[in-house]
Amino acid sequence: MKWSQTLIPTLKESPSEAEIDSHKLMIRAGLIRRITSGAYAYLPLGTLVLNKVIAIVREEMNRAGAIEVFLPALQHLDLLKESGRLKVFGADLITFQDRHGKETVLSPTHEEVITYIVKNEINSYKQLPITLYQIQTKFRDEMRPRFGVLRSKEFIMKDAYSFDIDEKGLNNSYQLMYDAYCRIFDRCGLDYIIAEADSGAMGGDASHEFMVPSPVGEDVLILCQNCGYSANRERAEAAPIPQQENPALQKPEEAFTPGKHTIQEVSDFLKISPQQMVKTLIYSSQDQLFAVLLRGDHEVNETRLTSVLGLESVELANRETIERITGAEVGFAGPVGLKMKIIADQAVTALSNFVTGSNKTDYHLLNVNYKRDFKIDQIANIRYVTEGDNCPRCNHVLEISQGIEIGHVFKLGTKYSHALKAHYLDSDGKEKPKVMGCYGIGVNRIIAAIIEKSHDDNGIIWPMSLAPYHIIIIPVNVKDPICMDAAKDIYDNISAMKGIDVLFDDRDLRPGVKFKDADLIGIPIKIIIGKKYTETKEVEIKLRKSGEVFLVHIENIKQELERILKDQIKI
Question: How far apart are CA 67 and CA 130, in angstroms?
Answer without folding.
Answer: 8
